[in-house]
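Here we describe the complex-level prediction in full. Unlike the single-chain runs in Section 2.1, the two entities below were treated as one system.
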Amino acid sequence: MTEGIADDPRLEPSALAREARELANTWSEPRGFVGWFSCVDHKTVGVRFIVTAFGFFILAGLLAAAMRLQLARPDNTLIGPDLYNQIFTMHGTTMMFLFAVPVVLGFGIYFVPLMIGSRAIAFPRLLAFAYWMFLFSGIFLYVMFFLNIGPDRGWFSYVPLAGPEYGIGKRADVWAQLVSFTETSGLAVSVCLIVTIFKLRAPGMSLNRIPLFVWAELVTAFMVACSMPSIMVASGTLILDRLVGTHFYNHAEGGDALLWQHLFWFFAHPEVYIIFLPAQGIVSMIIATFTGRPVFGYIALVLSLVATAFIGFGVWVHHMFTTGLPQFGTSFFTAASIMIVVPSGVQIFCWIATLWSGRVRFATPLLYALGFFVVFIMGGLTGVMLAAVPLDAQVHDTFFVVAHFHYVLIGGSLFPLLGGIHYWFPKMTGRMLSERMGKTAFWLLLIGFNATFFPQHILGLMGMPRRVYTYPVEMQWGALNLLSSAGALTMFVALSIYLANVAISLRRGAVAADNPWGASTLEWATSSPPPPYNFVPAPTVGGRDPLWETRADLPVVVGLAADTREVLVTRLMDAEPDHRKEFPEPTVWPFLTAVAVGGLYIGSIFTPWAVVWGAVPCTIALIGWAWPRKGNRPRSLERQIAHRHRTAAEHA
Amino acid sequence: MPAIIQSALHPAGPQAASISHLWWLMFWTCSVVYVVVIGALLVAIRRRRDEGGSTDERSLTRSVAAATGVTVVILFGLLFASVATGRAVASLGSAEGLVIDVTGNQWWWDVTYENPTPSLQVKTANELHIPVGRQVRIQLKSNDVIHSFWVPNLHGKMDLIPGRQTAIWLQADTPGVYRGQCAEYCGLQHANMALTVIAEASDDFERWLVAQRQPAPPPASPEQQRGLEVVERGPCAMCHTVVGTSAGGRTAPDLTHIATRSTIAAGTAPNTRGYLAGWITDPQHMKPGAKMPSTGLSADELQAVLAYLETLK
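The structure predicted for the assembly as a whole is:
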């Protein structure tokens, strides 16, 4: 079989070079002003997602710094209650909706097609639409904030505080429509990822050979698809209550304030795992690469991801333990919340076993993975405490909870993400990040993080509630709050160094090889940065770690057209070649559709008629998007022959 | 008067004590788990590896399985402790219990001591007196948005939800002054919605209750008389009640015995003449967003009102 492939004239170096030129021509993105809005390449869109999300991360971080300034001492009058309430709402909303979810999906958008050896992501135009919706949502939110109509009802927007009677003005509407924006975007991305992972894998990459990061993104995409409808219903009914006077949440008219909490947390708890699971995928990739061995317990890790996702949908009531629900009923949610520790524990034990048996290389990405252990495990353990109803009744809505979820989210997600950037930066940019600056930033971040958030556990037990803009000096919370604020300053310095590292290395970093870390997955099989068509020729896979397998000459896919955007579609279970699909060209219509939909969302804050009139441009944009193209040619006989040939080689 | 405290770690009643035991159990268990896991991690990355030798995957499998088994056992133990504590905390409840209605408002607590005879009911605000050693049932309602009743030295929190009634049983075993505050974000002045619980001996409590049932004393000096007139005819009576006078507003705290209370504006400031004057003159400065408007009293009207309010013991 190997010989047969080596003999194939299409794999001669000169033929490959010719094919690469042709592919580059076919898959290149349009340039110029309009081209910028037409791009559908998953790598460009993925980088846009990641960069935009980190832009919002910086904004939300600055808001956090403002809060820490205000709370640094008792009876502080730096920031008044109205602004403070907007700031903490903006911080939470931004971090959850505009940073954490888009950034983990952004990594998936960039790396999933590369890791599974595909030329492209499924539904690239839908993906482009998702990006524009995400970008517009963030711009919309911050424009509103600077106009002093930023949301101020908390990122959870409990009714009736956010309802028509007590949430006067437009601030709560801004929040509700921001949610509609970002959820539209998230749902679109989840569809792209699920279909990509199910149908576009390289031949040979059966389900039990998918890289763990791709598994994590798959599970996450399913969680997005299952949880976001709940928040769409919630934000939709909230804006209906506010805009047209429905009474979903008005108890005086038969509505129910607690219904909101159920709908919100049915989404918002899985949201935590949506943020967290892809980061666990990153941890798996980093640990495998920097121990030089496959991660121990592949099946256990995959099952843990899936189990976490399932149980994650059964724990939302632990956010509502103090609402007076019956004790017997809540104990089931205690059990579920405690049970979710088991899959996380299995993952941690498998990773420790991998480190135990591998050859550890202490590069910066691995440091972040180790930081993940130190920080996240603490957050997981305080999570067990919060699952206990009586203890939760004491620390619920206090700074203890603030400490807990920052340990979980920063430890469980931000540390792996920052490590992931260190890990994949060479692939994305062709340059290495500085190890020295990376390690400095890491240690400062670890120290600053713990100084910021560890004291908040104690503050919570000492009775300090969340979401207070000030506190009296007699409460004796001043010293720990000052320590916390000093920690925040340290984190600020650490992240500035990190950012400077990125900025400097982009221009002056060492040039990266194709596989600088000696990793095993397919994204390292192509150039750094990858060409628009990802691979020439497209790879096939014979195991879980294709680049570590002893055979140097892996079978490859030949016969895909280079003059059209042709992608090989494979079967769901075993990734046998199924058919070829011609992918769409770049187009500006997804951008225009996002403009139309965004206009409708924003207009509906002010008048219900926006939904009526806004439907017209949306329809026009969708017609333009779906307009049939010229030149959809039937497949040529010659290429069908090639297809058979390639399949035969694959089976040999 | 002992120092005011607000802490879950200094229990003053059986429920807070049970929860505090659960906390220390969880704290020590989780600390040990954390140290063991991080210790294993450190050994894993630091240990010297035999040259060329590979670790036995089967022994790794056994270790991971054992660690998972231990995790499950520990979690079952903690689950059991949690449910047992939940039962202990919920075990209060008796027909002889004192019943107090607490109603949440933006941003103060309306307090009513229930009594089958309406004239024996007592209304106050932002301050609860409870007898030591007696079970107390706090019935919680909200007039506007969701609030949460929380006095950490006595018990965990319970939400006040519009359209629903919730309740919480508690008991103080140690006399003292315990501070609590709203724990559910309720808008602009969520930070300044505190309440004080004074746990005192049964006799003291009964004396206090009897005193609270009295109407306001009549003014004893011309200045106080003038103060009463301002309260009755000025803006105060629109929202506030002073029993025994014609001031009967219902949307703001009952002032009949305001001079006995230790704070004003739901814990925003101590109840002294100076702070009270500042509060009446410009509430929006002391507590921006509070529902009390500026009263526009002249200087001598203000002094008269203060002189009168000081008599409301």
